[in-house]
Each structure stands twice: as structure tokens, then as C-alpha cells.
Amino acid sequence: MNSPLETAVLFWIGPVPITQPVVTTWVMMAMIVAGCYALTRNLSLHPGRRQAALELLVTVLDTQIRETMSVSPDRYRTFLGGLFLFILIANWSSLVPGVEPPTANLETDAALALLVFVAVIVYGIRAGGVGGYLRSFAMPTPLMIPLNLVETLTRSFSLLIRLFGNIMSGVFIIGIVLSLAGLFVPIPFMALDLLTGLVQAYIFTVLAMVFIAAAVAESQPSRDSGKD
């Protein structure tokens, strides 16, 4: 079993090494795009079972966004839904023999955390402009600027560590049990790993919602500031 901090280089594109998690991610992205195209073409006003199931999933996602962020889900549905779907499929890719989930790799989790970090800034600026977003770091007092800056960085870092630690540990446990006990004994652990993958995808996405909602709320001008 390889170290989780080491990645196997499969080939090179010029000076850029292409590792196994990168290739796995490319395959997953192609499958997600092809699957979304196949499932969403020929949508109808009179939905069949497939379209009804998809609409139910979108409704569940919209409800989660409304309850967590207290905003309309239209602006955030694509990013948060895509984030959850990618992490879930990446976590569950461990079911395929010979495939290690990309989320058990530190670089993949760092990229996902970086996406959330950039999304927080982008949505914060879209909500209150550059000035409003920068002023949010001085809330409730300018003395909090250093702490608010550190908090912004550590929140994304915590996403990275949480996802990497949980998925990597699951891969290691199954690998160790499989090497010691044979083929069938690890099946309960694999079922538990599936549940862990689902829970971690959900937690990562909900925390991204919370961070984005906080940036949006703090960047918007206070409606009550001019009434008193």
C-alpha cells in the first residue's frame, strides 16, 4: 500500500507529471458530464419516472440550500450540487477494483478546498461588491481584521483535513483488513466506507454552504443601519 502523501506518476505532458488521481478525476468528470447529458436531454412538461426522480433530487438540494443559507437556491445550485456529486462519486470510486478514490489524495482535497475558498470570495463580492466584502473583515470592529483573515484561511484548511483524513483512513483500513483476512471479511467495512463517503460528501457541501452564506450575509449592507 502506497503512502497517501505519495502519488504514482503515470506519464508526463511536457514538464507536468500526470498522476493516477488526476487520471481518475478526468475519467470521473467525463462520466459525470456524459451522465448529466444523457439524463437531462429530452426533458418534458409531463415527466416520466427518470425525470421525476431527477426533479426530486434537485428539490432536496434546493431545500437544503434554503434551510442552510436562507437564500434562493438559483445562484448556488450548480456549484454546490456539482461539488456534492463529484465528492460522492470520488468517495465511492473505491468500490471499483484497483481504483483508489481521488479524495484519499491530499492534492485533490486541497483543490476542492481551494474551490470553496474562491467561491466564498466570489459570492461575497457578488453580494456586496468589492468594498462590501472587504468591509466584512472589519466586522464587528476593525480590531478583528487579523482574526477574520485567519478564520477565512483556516475554514478552508479544515475542509481539506477533514475530507482527506476520513477518506484516507477508510481506504487504509479496508486495505489492511483485505490483506490480513481475505476477500469477504472486509465487506462490512466496505459498506461502512460507503456510508462514510456519503456523510463526508454531505458534510463538505453543507460546510461550503455555511461559509458562503456567512460571506454573503456579512458583505451585504445592513438594512437597519439607516433607520435609527
From TrEMBL:
Q: What InterPro entries does the record point to?
A: ATP_syn_F0_a_bact/chloroplast, ATP_synth_F0_asu, F0_ATP_A_sf
User: What Gene3D superfamilies does the database record attribute to this sequence?
Assistant: ATP synthase, F0 complex, subunit A
Give the subcellular location: Cell membrane; Membrane
Q: Give TM segment ranges.
A: 20-40, 79-99, 111-134, 163-187, 199-217
What membrane topology was assigned to this protein in its record?
Multi-pass membrane protein
Superkingdom classification of source:
Bacteria
Kindly state which keywords UniProt assigns to this record, in alphabetical order: ATP synthesis, Cell membrane, CF(0), Hydrogen ion transport, Ion transport, Membrane, Transmembrane, Transmembrane helix, Transport
Q: Which residues form the signal peptide?
A: none
- What does this chain do? Key component of the proton channel; it plays a direct role in the translocation of protons across the membrane.
Name the family the entry cites.
Belongs to the ATPase A chain family.
Cross-referenced NCBIfam families, in alphabetical order? ATP_synt_6_or_A, PRK13421.1
Q: What is the name listed in the Swiss-Prot or TrEMBL entry for this protein?
A: ATP synthase subunit a
